[in-house]
């Protein structure tokens, strides 16, 4: 049994149930789990840990690549298993625990967690739980649909638990490129000069003695929960494409553009989907996650290849991807998130970065994380890794939320994740503001007139006119700067009636 | 005459007065001038441009390395010569013009200006004005006390004006390492693996035909305006040193620490000065500017070498430096600011970054630039380049300003230049808050109790207690979040009487 999945016979002894493997955990441990944007997460151990926490206290620090699927984050949070969580999450139940202060959430740039572990700035990982397609004869772990921080966790953990997922096709072997930078300060450059380049192993190299348990599972990843494109995301896509056509026309890039990065979620997915009708050819992606749109662009031939840390698809697209997997073998590379998001590589390749804002202010400061300035949505994810170092840093959002009660364009961002220094272009369904080379006083009218919903433009103009009276590089009326958020909380709408 | 300074005889024809050279400029042009933190700035052309603007309209876009000396920025601003300015300044008169909206100031990460010029995201430089020690036989320009963006300006400009400064010793030849990254997306890694490494030329290579004018000057750089250490900066230095001793003890680094970066100004200079009494040995610097303290540490032998983009010294230290210049030849490297501040290199070397905050909030968001949230002080400079990518990102400030009327620790930063994601350690004269691996709710009490002035702690505690009632990852009372700044404006003090 499992000879094709566990290719080192001596490791057969380590096969056990998730319940047995869960006994390796102790209260207070730091655990690193595979999983990035619902892809490649461990399926059995989260549930087994929830069970164990019913019998005895089990408060863990949980690190992952990014968000988990299968409601694992919520189930573990509700069972009290997760006391501390980093670097990202996207689960409704866990979010509640975070915002109530029951779970300490450390919101990090996704490229930095591995570096901080390696530097000793974070407590070391005691146990790594890694979902795998198979284990090689020398003990190498072949990951499934994401790579995330798995290689770093496995390299550092005292014990490794491998979940062999029988539903993950063996054909995934060869998609991964496992490269781990050395310790600082004496390390070399990351030798990646193009999105398609491979520089590492196809499995995570670990000494087989450190594999403490192997658990067999058979359930698939949770499908993507991105919504289909709509009129507004279509409009956003059109503005982005028109802008990029202008860049090509101005000679700043060719019709292959620059390597594309697109954040997780509905809007970024829709914008990429819109590229199918664009004139661009021979594009590449250097991103953190591949959604349905990336596969569509590979199929249409406009995308020649795609590099990322995970593949997160709808159920239908997943089925199609697996059926035709050989078509993608030479065209997709899965990397550790430290590499997919690395500032060194992002700056060198000069990406076009496309990320989603919750809100932005009239000067171009972006809030990606905090609803109303206080409550965590998901986390900053890779948006900072990309926005800071990309050649073109674009942020997209719909101009209003909650049926118009919330304006995504506000006088003052109630939480700042990306400062005006790192934001080149803002886009809503109403239009696009190209902020490159502009001072704050030049940015404000452009953002208000091009991006804000028409219903909110008079209010924004009035705020800016009032602010100008006080002068400054970045004029504000401090007493009113956050009043829109307060009004929404008080009256249910940011709009002045 | 000048044979030792103009070593290509054919260029002797190009020697002219600054007034003659100023006639090359046309209204609306983009001009790139040498100069970084008052070091190596052009001395004659700024004054000649001011003169010319008396006769005819001359509104220029002025790019530099960083701040200029000799009141050049102010004189040019007052004469209307500077219509647009980037990426940094530190002049009182120019600051007034910026804050009144008369000059458009684009505040940039100092590593990014050159990249944006190369990518065509900024309008190209028409004329470069570069202060030089000499011109080599093949037309290479040997810079003076800074390198800044000079090589990039010279590479791109249609015409180059060289100011040969006779007061700059010929012995400066050999201190510079001119390396310019290629255009994206097809460029290699920056081959810098250690602070002392050299990889380029000792002069800026340009075709001699592009040198349109040579102007002879003889006046020195403006001396540094950093203030001497005081009791509070001494206390800050002690906290920093004790913390770094803890890092060594914990095994996270050796007694050579990591390459050090320290921002311009009094506090960073004082902290470095404090290292003279520290147990650390064989340290290196990889910074953007070397101040008096760096020379002191080189002299004491604790610093083995220092890399930066400029040398900005007091008059006495400058005189000593020039007198003993041969002692420093093998121990100082001057680089383009794109390289001294490059995210790729900063991340690879794992720097300890020490920068000055204007204010920070109880969650660790830092304001480096905007007084009262609206009025520009100097600019973000290199602080973002370093803070984002350093292994340890520290921000220092005195806990109060204006005799206690302003608290540097506030509920909500009135302008955010560095987000909580990029800030590891905060230090005031009262103490140090180590924020690594902490969630916002863990950060707030630590920052309040360790860093805030005791007079302001009760107010901060009360704000935080009130904020907690509303919940969230980052609790705030939006109506009160910016009220401290408003109170200062209204009542002259942030302190509630």
Automatic annotation (TrEMBL), chains A, B:
Residues 319-463 form the Acetyl-CoA hydrolase/transferase C-terminal domain. GO terms for molecular function: acetate CoA-transferase activity; acetyl-CoA hydrolase activity. It comes from the Bacteria. Keywords: Transferase. Pfam families: AcetylCoA_hyd_C (PF13336), AcetylCoA_hydro (PF02550). The keyword Ribosomal protein does not apply. CoA binds at residues 378, 382, 402. The keyword Iron does not apply. PANTHER family: ACETYL-COA HYDROLASE. Belongs to the acetyl-CoA hydrolase/transferase family. This is Succinate CoA transferase.
């Amino acid at each position: 049994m499992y000879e094709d999945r566990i290719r080192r016979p001596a490791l057969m002894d380590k096969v056990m149930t998730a319940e047995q493997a869960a006994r390796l955990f102790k209260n207070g441990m730091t655990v690193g789990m595979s999983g990035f944007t619902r892809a490649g997460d461990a399926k059995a151990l989260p549930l087994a840990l929830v069970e164990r926490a019913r019998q005895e206290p089990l408060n863990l620090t949980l690190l992952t690549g990014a968000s988990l699927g299968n409601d694992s984050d919520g189930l573990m949070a509700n069972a009290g298993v997760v006391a501390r969580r980093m670097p990202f999450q996207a689960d409704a139940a866990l979010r509640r625990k975070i915002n109530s202060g029951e779970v300490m959430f450390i919101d990090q740039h996704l490229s930095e967690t591995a570096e901080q572990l390696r530097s000793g700035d974070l407590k070391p990982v005691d146990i790594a739980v890694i979902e795998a397609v198979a284990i090689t004869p020398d003990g190498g772990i072949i990951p499934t649909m994401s790579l995330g921080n798995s290689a770093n966790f496995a390299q550092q953990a005292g014990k490794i638990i491998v979940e062999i997922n029988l539903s993950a096709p063996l054909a995934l072997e060869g998609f991964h490129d496992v490269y781990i930078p050395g310790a600082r300060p004496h390390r070399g450059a990351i030798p990646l000069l193009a999105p398609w380049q491979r520089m590492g192993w196809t499995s995570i190299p670990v000494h087989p003695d450190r594999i403490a348990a192997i658990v067999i599972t058979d359930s698939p990843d949770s499908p993507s929960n991105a919504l289909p494109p709509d009129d507004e995301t279509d409009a956003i896509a059109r503005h982005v494409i028109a802008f990029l056509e202008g860049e090509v026309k101005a000679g700043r890039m060719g019709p292959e553009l620059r390597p594309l990065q697109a954040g997780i979620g509905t809007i970024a997915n829709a914008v990429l989907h819109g590229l199918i009708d664009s004139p661009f050819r021979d594009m590449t992606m250097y991103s953190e996650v591949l959604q349905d749109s990336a596969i569509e662009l590979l199929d249409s031939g406009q995308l020649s290849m795609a590099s990322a840390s995970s593949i997160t698809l709808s159920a239908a697209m997943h089925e199609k991807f697996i059926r035709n997997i050989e078509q993608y073998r030479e065209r997709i590379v899965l990397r550790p998130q430290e590499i997919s998001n690395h500032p060194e590589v992002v700056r060198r390749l000069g990406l076009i970065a496309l990320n989603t804002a919750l809100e932005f202010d009239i000067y171009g400061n972006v809030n990606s994380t905090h609803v109303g300035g206080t409550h965590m949505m998901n986390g900053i994810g890779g948006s900072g890794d990309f926005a800071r170092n990309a050649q073109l840093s674009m942020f997209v959002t719909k101009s209003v939320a909650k049926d118009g009660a919330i304006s995504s364009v506000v006088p003052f961002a109630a939480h700042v994740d990306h400062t005006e220094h790192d934001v080149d272009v803002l886009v809503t369904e109403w239009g696009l503001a190209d902020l490159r080379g502009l001072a704050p006083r030049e940015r404000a009218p452009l953002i208000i007139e091009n991006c804000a919903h028409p219903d909110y433009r008079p209010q924004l103009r009035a705020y800016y006119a009032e602010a100008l009276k006080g002068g400054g590089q970045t004029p504000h009326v401090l007493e009113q700067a956050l009043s829109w958020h307060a009004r929404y909380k008080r009256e249910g709408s940011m709009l002045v009636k």
